[in-house]
Design goal:
Elements: E1 3-5, E2 12-14, E3 16-19, H1 27-39, E4 44-46, H2 54-61, E5 71-76, H3 84-98, E6 103-108, H4 113-121, H5 124-134, E7 137-144, H6 148-157, E8 162-166, H7 177-186, E9 190-194, H8 201-204, H9 208-216, H10 223-232, E10 239-242, H11 247-256, H12 267-281, H13 303-315, H14 320-330, H15 345-348, H16 356-368
Parallel strand pairs: 3-4, 3-10, 4-5, 5-6, 6-7, 7-8, 8-9, 9-10
Antiparallel strand pairs: 1-2
The protein binds iron/sulfur cluster (2 copies).
Residues 288-294, 303-304, 307, 349-350, 352, 354, 356 line the site of one iron/sulfur cluster.
């Protein structure tokens, strides 16, 4: 197992962290899997109050001396918070579930528009500082599925030590993207990557062209391996979470991460992953190139971002995250397609001659369904 720095915290973490969201249904199997990961060098577990049953099983797996051998990250259930005092009440419950007296990394869970407003309303940031003083948490962070703009605002608001973002071969410029990763790393924050395979959707819908590219490439690696490799190649990445649900998957991940060091990809490798991305993108349903000639919209509609989310949603066989980003971020922030008044200004500038107002209407209806 390769290890790397975790931002400025001084922690040295395995490049592969075990995501505890998709445990096997059998509790004994789940405990065995967690312990197998730790026995094989994984020293970072990621769970959350909202992952059903996960903290309790993780707590059981951490008995018998395993707690001292790994860092534990978990998340505050922002959805359930209705007053300031709730933050500490839930944290205490999580400590009890996990059978520990402190959380190494505590995250405010999913800083979408509404959750972030709630954190500000109920003074969640003061809570985080107070808990560090009390020793109940050691490091402060947040996880996020949001736009780059909103992400930067959150990063700039507080002295965070880490962030957890979605990033994979298709999300180079989607959500927070590589630009967001570098932004956080520049501030000394650790960056934990989630959804490296887009919750597995990347593998469920592989275009024939991708198979051809892999078969023709002289260096033989699986698509999973290239996906992980593309991420850990970036020196700003602290670790990658993978939520395995079988021991076989876990063993395969451990094999892949045996040599997971940054800057290992050659120009040719990067070219290959770029062509893989291109093969997926060629399947998109709205022919928007992201040129932004249609922008700005006087009503604040973020046209290219909406089309990009929709293409990703279609490509990934209706992946909930894209829908969620639209509904929980763009619409509440006033940049959704519902703001369109059909003035037609944007369509006049579109080199692809897209019927933008009509398309926006369709996308909005689909995303809100
Ligand atoms: S048609 Fe809609 S999206 Fe296009 S510029 Fe007008 S208000 Fe904005
Ligand atoms: S002008 Fe057309 S192709 Fe360019 S970003 Fe806008 S909708 Fe997409």
């Amino acid at each position: 197992m390769e290890y790397g720095q975790y931002g400025k915290t001084g922690m040295k973490v395995s490049r592969f962290g075990l995501g505890c969201m998709r445990f096997p249904s059998d509790e004994h199997e789940a405990i065995k899997m967690v312990r197998y990961a730790i026995d094989n060098g994984v020293n970072y577990l990621d769970t959350a109050y909202m992952y059903k049953g996960s903290e309790i099983i993780t707590g059981k797996a951490l008995k018998d001396g395993y707690r001292n051998r790994t860092y534990v990250a978990t998340k505050s259930p922002i959805w359930n918070i209705t007053r300031h005092e709730d933050f500490e009440r839930y944290l205490d419950e999580e400590l009890m579930r996990l059978g520990t007296d402190h959380i190494d990394v505590y995250l405010l869970h999913n800083m979408n528009h509404d959750n972030w407003e709630k954190v500000k309303r109920y003074d969640g940031l003061t809570f985080m500082d107070k808990m560090v003083q009390k020793g109940k948490i050691l490091h402060k962070g947040f996880s996020v599925h949001n736009t780059l703009k909103a992400f930067k605002e959150i990063v700039d608001t507080f002295d965070w030590e880490m962030t957890q973002i979605q990033l994979n071969i298709l999300d180079e410029t989607q959500q927070v993207g590589v630009e967001g990763l570098k932004y956080a790393a520049d501030k000394g924050m650790a960056a934990v990557i989630m959804e490296p395979l887009r919750g597995g959707y990347l593998l469920n819908n592989i275009p024939k062209e991708v198979h051809d590219l892999l078969n023709q490439y002289p260096e033989k690696r699986s698509l999973v391996e290239w996906c992980f490799r593309w991420i850990y190649n970036m020196p700003e990445v602290s670790l990658i979470l993978s939520g395995t649900s079988t021991l076989e998957q876990l063993k395969d991940n451990l094999r892949i991460f045996e040599h997971a060091a940054p800057n290992v990809m050659t120009e040719e490798d990067l070219n290959l992953t770029g062509r893989i991305r291109g093969a997926y993108e060629a399947k998109k349903s709205i022919g928007c190139t992201g040129c932004r000639y249609c922008m700005p919209c006087p009503q604040g509609v973020t046209i290219p971002e909406i089309f990009k989310l929709y293409n990703s949603y279609q490509l990934m066989k209706s992946h909930w995250v894209d829908k969620g980003v639209y509904r929980s971020n763009l619409v509440p922030a006033g940049s959704g397609a519902d703001r369109c008044v059909e003035c037609g200004l944007c369509a006049e500038h579109c080199p692809q001659t897209l019927k933008i107002p009509e398309l926006l209407k369709e996308v909005h209806a689909e995303f809100m369904r």
